[in-house]
Design a protein that fits this description.
41% of the residues lie in helices and 20% in strands. The strands form four sheets. Strands 2-6-7-10-1-11-12-13-14 form a nine-stranded mixed β-sheet. It is elongated. The protein contains 16 helices and 16 strands. With 479 residues, the chain is an alpha+beta fold. The relative contact order is 0.09. Bound molecules: adenosine-5'-diphosphate (ADP) and magnesium ion (MG). Adenosine-5'-diphosphate binds next to strand 1, strand 10 and strand 11.
């Protein structure tokens, strides 16, 4: 494996989150009854004319600005001709020679902590096709044209990726970006964000790229990683046993964990691209670009860097907390409500809160614990009303909807014991109950200290202030 290098370029399709289709007024809402959301334009009936959706253009421009790309002042829609049952027009409207977004880049973070800039060749606007349904039709295929005409942004990377891990890191970063921008809902189960992976291998040091295979329609990060891993091995085995890789389209079968040939280069479609005579060239002026720029949110990398500087977080923590806009907002609201302690807030948002969300399959927007409530809990840790350990119990009750932290602490009698006399009383009881351990400790068995701490905490039901317990216990054990 050592002498081989992998080369990968990704083509990612992001469905744009417009209300209506890219060239018609039909709804793009997911999950409607089949064929209830395809109008005459989406079906390409004779005599209809497409009208470009301004919002789809605005979203494409926002994306271009976010990746530092050039926005083409003039771009052209072309017809990509092919026959398929889910494409009743017989052609897909796309952009070919002159795409709206050209030459951008995205920085990805690698596992070893370094980062790498990945070139984005282009991003163009196009319409999605309908869907063929092969289940439930006993020997027949169903066609659902609801998706026909849904706006897509196809984002094409340079062949800059060198491993399946890098490809996944790039895809995740792009996913985060389009969701941040609010131009795509990012729902991969529903097909809103999907990927074609181009994969080739070459001997290390070889200046020329190898022949690539294109793996179509990968709709999860895991499938992308597995499909690429499989494909790399297949190509290396093939070459090492004297064969040659042929340029072809392949499909990934997740059940078998392998890619299989779908069609070779000879059977590749000749799309006979030509400018769509029904659509004028797309002219974008400075005002339009300026307005799109003004509507950009704080971008993920900028927010992450700000979290490092403003809150003193590690780069890792800042990365986790800025994974989504909602999570970043939740964190910042918590810090604001508590009035400081950014590290404590980070630990709780990334730790207990994230754990509970994960366990219940909820995302941050559905958190039953509000930022105000979490801050209320952290306030009581800060003023030492409760210990960190007891706080976990309070959090569980918060999650279950038992009211605010103060009410829960009161109701359950969880207030930390900080009264020295009360703690001394517990310590005396523990020492009296364990004379043997006391003798051993005094004879030099230091590690029994932990045993005594444990007993005191147990007897006080976890409520004794740990700092005071340590201090007072050390004194008493010394005798
Ligand atoms: P096509 O027009 O056939 O789609 P492109 O030149 O647009 O081909 O490339 C499509 C994708 O394939 C791009 O993401 C590009 O980076 C990638 N790619 C091109 N050549 C190679 C190669 N030899 N190995 C891996 N990926 C490649
Ligand atoms: Mg392509």
């Amino acid at each position: 494996m050592m002498e081989w290098e992998t080369v990968i370029g990704l083509e990612i399709h992001a469905q744009l989150a417009t209300k209506s289709k890219i060239f018609s007024g039909a709804s793009t809402a997911y999950g409607a009854e089949p064929n209830t959301q395809a109008c005459a334009i989406d079906l390409g009936l004779p005599g209809v004319l497409p009208v470009l959706n301004r919002e789809a253009v605005r979203m494409a421009v926002m994306f271009g600005l976010a990746i530092g790309a050039t926005i083409a002042r003039r771009s052209v829609f072309a017809r990509k001709n092919y026959f398929y049952p889910d494409l009743p027009k017989g052609y897909q409207i796309s952009q070919y020679e002159l795409p709206v977004v050209q030459k951008g880049e995205l920085t990805i973070d690698l596992e070893d902590g370094s980062s790498k800039v990945i070139g984005i060749t282009r991003a163009h606007l196009e319409e999605d096709a309908g869907k063929s349904l092969h289940e439930d039709f006993h020997g027949l295929s169903g066609i659902d044209l609801n998706r026909a005409g849904t706006p897509l942004l196809e984002i094409v990377s340079e062949p800059d990726l060198r491993s399946a891990k890098e490809a996944v890191a790039y895809m995740k970063k792009l996913h985060q970006m389009v969701v941040y921008l609010g131009i795509c809902d990012g729902n991969m189960q529903e097909g809103s964000f999907r990927c074609d992976a181009n994969v080739s291998v070459r001997r290390k040091g070889d200046p020329k790229f190898g022949t690539r295979a294109e793996i179509k329609n990968l709709n999860s990060f895991r499938f992308v990683e597995r499909a690429i891993e499989f494909e790399i091995e297949r190509q290396i085995d093939l070459i090492e046993s004297g064969g040659t890789v042929v340029q072809e389209t392949r499909l990934y079968d997740p059940d078998q964990g392998e890619t299989r040939s779908m069609r070779g280069k000879e059977e590749a479609n000749d799309y006979r691209y030509f400018p769509d005579p029904d659509l004028l060239p797309l002219i974008i002026d400075e005002d339009f670009i300026a307005a799109a720029r003004a509507s950009l949110p704080e971008l993920p990398d900028v927010k992450k860097q700000r979290f490092v500087e403003q809150y003193g977080l590690s780069s890792y923590d800042a990365g986790v907390l800025t994974a989504s806009r909602e999570l970043g907002d939740y964190y910042e609201e918590t810090v604001a409500a508590l009035g400081g302690e950014p590290k404590l807030c980070a630990n709780w948002v990334m730790g207990d809160l994230a754990g509970f969300l994960n366990k219940d399959g909820k995302d941050i927007a559905q958190s039953p614990v509000s930022t105000e409530q979490l801050a209320g809990l952290l306030r009581r840790i800060r003023d030492r009303t409760i210990s960190g350990k007891i706080a976990k119990e309070v959090f569980e009750a918060l999650w279950a909807g038992e009211g605010d932290a103060d009410a829960i602490i009161e109701k359950r009698g969880l207030k930390q014991i900080t009264d020295t006399a009360a703690i001394e009383k517990v310590i005396d009881d523990v020492i009296a109950a364990n004379p043997e351990q006391l003798a051993q400790y005094r004879a030099g068995k230091d590690k029994l200290f932990g045993f005594f701490v444990g007993q005191v905490m147990k007897l006080s039901k976890g409520k004794a202030n740990p700092g005071q317990v340590n201090e007072l216990l050390a004194e008493k054990l010394r005798g």
